[in-house]
Design a protein that fits this description.
alpha/beta; 9-stranded mixed sheet; binds iron/sulfur cluster
Length: about 400
């Protein structure tokens, strides 16, 4: 039997029945997070990067830097979208490539243009997501002046980080990132730091990795599963019931959960939140609508760019900020597919008892040539094991708390 809004097609979700969805009462969720590819190149050559090393090579045809007229159009479109949808606050992530390659003056121009267009009725929160190599006091003074938060990609200790995050000549980047982190975490700038993105490598010891991150006292850590799918599996993810990524994460979870001074580890907190019936705010788990959109360096409106790991053109649309309001993108089938919750899940996931917590995992990880994104996550076995473990630990803790013998859960 068919499902409203869902066409059984090998190219799903390209043939998503948008009219059927609307007739059934579905309405899109406005974008609240805008990712600007302010610079399309990078000063590192990380071998797992979905931008440069995976299926989509579209970066080669992008201009290096987002031109000021494009920034002006983005600013106008963001403000327009917020006002049309009565949003009082939106988020802008300055992204790349490596966004700091754009230079402080260009970053300042982007922040001022977007904030001016949104003033006075829409608040804009800015974050820059950087590899950390170019962080210096020029940038930090600018970020402090304009209230731009800073997230850094760090995979752990020097040997763990430099496994992948290298310069083009093969030198690791850890030493340079540490110089940037010393500046960022100095008292004058510490408040700008939002935390780390850390991509998992199974060869790295999980506790050594976690402790290397904790050494910087980060406000948050987000462990990322390396991108891959059923056609191009992630490293070490064999087509069997083994759970290497769950086992790696559980080692950290058990340490984290029982640490009274724990930092915010996003994946764990999201799973706990979902287990207690709340919503997620993450792409990694849960069924909440994804309200994020990307603007490429040339002004093209795109979907979440991790899709570039799936196949050439996977993140693309034909929309451009010079012609198209963001509202038009909300009706793009591939963007809608990220907002329709359980209706975007495969039959396997829909019948899985964990699907409201797992949500089929990260959308990008469901891809298989021939069936598109209508599959469980390639990390299905890991997600089952991790979610079940978190459930068991939290349940046991709650039971103990009821009789007054344990610390409160996060
Ligand atoms: S990916 Fe696996 S664990 Fe997650 S909902 Fe689907 S079947 Fe369940």
């Amino acid at each position: 039997m068919g499902v409203v809004g869902r066409a059984e097609s090998p190219e799903w979700p390209r043939s998503l029945d948008m009219r059927g969805l609307l007739a059934a009462g579905w309405r899109p969720t406005p974008f609240q997070e805008f990712v600007l590819k302010i610079h399309s190149r990078c000063n590192l050559s990380c071998d797992y990067c979905y931008m440069y090393e995976m299926a989509d090579q579209g970066w080669k045809s992008q201009p290096r830097r987002m031109a000021r007229p494009i920034i002006d159009q983005v600013a106008r479109r963001v403000a327009e979208h917020a006002r049309e949808n009565l949003l009082r606050k939106v988020g802008i992530t300055l992204h790349g490539g490596e966004p700091l390659l754009a230079g402080p003056e260009h970053v300042r121009y982007a922040v001022e243009a977007i904030r001016d267009a949104a003033h006075p009725d829409v608040e804009v929160e800015f974050t820059v997501q950087t590899n950390g190599v170019l962080i210096d006091t020029d940038f930090l003074d600018l970020f402090a002046k304009f209230g731009v938060s800073v997230g850094v990609s760090l995979d752990g200790d020097e040997s763990g980080h430099d496994l992948h995050r290298k310069r083009a000549d093969g030198r690791g980047s850890h030493r340079d990132v540490m110089a940037g982190m010393r500046a960022l975490t100095s008292p004058a700038y510490r408040d700008l730091f939002t935390g780390f993105l850390a991509t998992i490598d199974l060869r790295n010891d999980p506790i050594a990795t976690y402790e290397a991150l904790l050494a910087h006292d980060p406000p948050g850590v987000d462990f990322l599963l390396p991108h891959g799918n059923w056609t191009t599996p992630p490293p070490g993810r064999l087509p069997d019931s083994s759970t290497p990524y769950a086992d790696w994460l559980i080692t950290i979870f058990d340490r984290w959960y029982h640490d009274p001074g724990r930092t915010r580890v996003r994946l764990f907190l999201e799973i706990i939140s979902l287990l207690t019936g709340k919503y997620s705010a993450s792409e990694a788990v849960g069924l909440s609508p994804i309200s994020m959109v990307v603007v490429e360096t040339n002004g093209r409106i795109e979907q979440v760019d991790t899709l570039k790991s799936a196949f050439e053109g996977a993140a693309g649309t034909t929309l451009h900020v010079s012609r198209d309001p963001f509202t038009t993108a909300l009706m793009h089938p591939s963007i809608a597919a990220r907002q329709i919750g359980v209706r975007a899940l495969s039959e396997t996931c829909r019948s899985c008892p964990l699907h409201r917590v797992c949500g089929g995992g990260h959308y990008t990880h469901r891809y298989r040539t021939g069936t598109g994104f209508l599959n469980p996550s390639v990390y299905c076995a890991d997600l089952k094991r991790l979610i079940t473990h978190v459930h068991d630990v939290v349940s046991a803790d709650v039971a103990r708390r009821r009789v007054g013998h344990a610390a409160p859960p996060p």
